[in-house]
Amino acid sequence: MKILVCISNVPDTTTKIRFNAEKTEFDKTGVQWIINPWDELALTRALELKEGSGGAVECVDVASVNLIDAEPTIRKALAIGADKAFRVNAMPKDAYFVAGQLAEVVKSGGYDLVLCGIESSDYNGSAVGGMLAEFMDYNSVSAVSGINLDGGKITINREIDGGKEVLNISAPLVAVVQKGIAIDPRIPNMRGIMMARQKPLTVSEPTGIDALTSFETYELPAPKAACKMIDPENVKQLIDLLHNEAKAI
Amino acid sequence: MSVLVYTENWDGKFKKLSFELVSYAAKIAEELNTKVVAVSIGNVEKAALAELGKYGASKVIVVCNGELNNLDNKAYNAVLAQAAEKEGANVIILAHNNKGKALAPGLSVKMKAGLISGVTGLPSSYSPMVVKKKSFTGAAFANVKVLSEKSILTLFQNSYAVVEKNIEPSIEEFAPALPAINTQVTNVDKVTGKILLSDAEIVVSGGRGMKGPENWSGIEELAQILGAATACSRPVSDEGWRGHSEHVGQTGKIIAPNLYFALGISGAIQHLGGVSSSKCIVAVNTDKDAPIFEAADYGIIGDVRKVLPDMITAFKEFKASN
Ligand SMILES: Cc1cc2nc3c(=O)[nH]c(=O)nc-3n(C[C@H](O)[C@H](O)[C@H](O)COP(=O)(O)OP(=O)(O)OC[C@H]3O[C@@H](n4cnc5c(N)ncnc54)[C@H](O)[C@@H]3O)c2cc1C
Q1: Which one in A17, A209, B133, B268 has a CA-CA gap of 20 to 30 Å to B108?
Q2: Which numeric CATH code is attached to A2-221?
């Protein structure tokens, strides 16, 4: 089995979000970039699956649709333990465009298990994994909180609205993963960082797929009114405010 | 033309979310001068199906087939795509929940319909379709334009108020062609007897400031008094004090209740990402500089171990007299 993990390059989760003066673009000045947290967990789980497979998992590779400035993030994925990396040299315009490009990587590499994070913490699309499955006509499962391989059989834990399920499904498969898939993300060690420099990072040009949506402008949420402080000795006042002012109870 | 809305059911019942979706679809249909067609998959009683008309569905398409008892993305999308085709739907609306997130992307590719996921309000333009959605995990909004003729929107729970229309809908059975089902569900574990975090109008949430799992009885008691669901910050679920399904925040569940209690939660940016859309936030924290007070509407600087029991007493009194 060959596993591909799709990697999105996102601002560090503590980044102060700002936009350009026209409010049409995210302001990248001074931003630290990281592997999207769910993708990092997906990669961690993929490596665990490979290590526990007794050779049945041939490789864990990563792919990202991004311009060259995302390479440090891709190298980090290699340092964590991915075997090879692919970068499709394009601005990730929208989820449809990105999924279409990733489909080319999946096809040419013959991957039978693809892991994607449930969403990317920047544009929060929750879309690339499901779209990729449809482009490939692969099976797909979303909200995956656990995945195990047992011979040819794939067992998955899936969150449903109001509970959980265990299910079996066959490859080729796209699993869209979320919290629970791995406990802590792996952190690259010195050896990993050294080795990552030698590992192949293949760059390809995008194929002609048009985006279906465009991000036009951005807005910041309206600033919040100052918090009203209530005397801890007078909790009754809280109830009064919640009832009469906020009308929340 | 029509606006198609997928109304999921839970053990044969619809929820407030279903009616929010239909109400939202009805408003869009009105703007586009067309009608709402709801699609229901599975066994739902006639009276419940007819209730979708109350919120604006002119027609309800019912697909009953044992093969669809469990969610299989390909099969469900085959149903939705065929229903959309049959009804000439140009706009398709789903919930921004687990099922909607599982289905909308595949449907988008199948129908070449631009997807805007996680919308929180009506379009600002209908031709082209432009809708505001959350981005940067609640830190911003993006106005996204659909470039294709058809569009798909997934709507966040509790972001659009239910509106009554009182239409008598036609109910029509539909038997679309299904692909082979590949998802074999072997075990289902449903939460019973508790208010689900995603459905809750009030949420009582605890952080590391609660000090330990043994102190959660106060949270549960307050939740019970208020008819609320319980939640927690990430370290609390990582430590195993509470189950993972209660973790809210950027990497957990994103919720938008009417009222959110943050007890002993510092209000880290990643936590706020999941709760900042709450209509009203109450924070209790010993640290007057805790960032949670920047996001909160009402704050109490104090020790939860003292304040929570006082809150329980006061809310009990309030409930008894209201
Ligand atoms: C990639 C990434 C993703 C993350 N995702 C999430 C997420 O989804 N959700 C999430 O919650 N976190 C997330 N985090 C973690 C986040 O950064 C914070 O560490 C976390 O939210 C802190 O949890 P806390 O507020 O419970 O604990 P702490 O930060 O330890 O805060 C405890 C608070 O309780 C107060 N306190 C202490 N004792 C008392 C008392 N007796 N009475 C009243 N108050 C008291 C303290 O003043 C403090 O403010 C993420 C982090 C990263 C890096």
Answers
A1: A17
A2: 3.40.50.620
Kindly list the domain boundaries of chain A, sorted by start residue.
2-221
- Spatial CA neighbour of A128 closest among B105, B81, B100, B108: B105
Distances (CA, A) of B10 to A161, B13, B40, B221: 9, 5, 11, 27
The verdict on B245 touching A (C-beta cutoff 8 Å) is yes
ipTM: 0.96
- Pick the atom of ligand 1 nearest to A14's CA: 53
Residues of chain B in contact with residue A165, where contact means CB-CB under 8 angstroms, are: 70, 185, 187-189
Phi, psi values for residue A177, rounded to 5°: -105, 155
- What count of Cα atoms within 13 Å lies in the side-chain half-sphere of residue B22? 31
The answer to whether the pTM exceeds 0.80 is: yes
Q: Do B251 and A128 touch (CB under 8 A)?
A: no
Domain range list for chain B: 2-173, 202-320
Architecture of domain B202-320: 3-Layer(aba) Sandwich (3.40)
**Phi, psi (5° rounding) for residue B104?**
-55, -45
B2-173 has CATH 3.40.50.620 classification: yes
Q: Do B2-173 and B202-320 share a fold?
A: yes
Per-residue pLDDT of chain B (322 residues; tens, 9 = 90+): 999 999 999 999 999 999 999 999 999 999 999 999 999 999 999 999 999 999 999 999 999 999 999 999 999 999 999 999 999 999 999 999 999 999 999 999 999 999 999 999 999 999 999 999 999 988 999 999 999 999 999 999 999 999 999 999 999 999 999 999 999 999 999 988 788 998 999 999 999 999 999 999 999 999 999 999 999 999 999 999 999 889 999 999 999 999 999 999 999 999 999 999 999 999 999 999 999 999 999 999 999 999 999 999 999 999 999 8
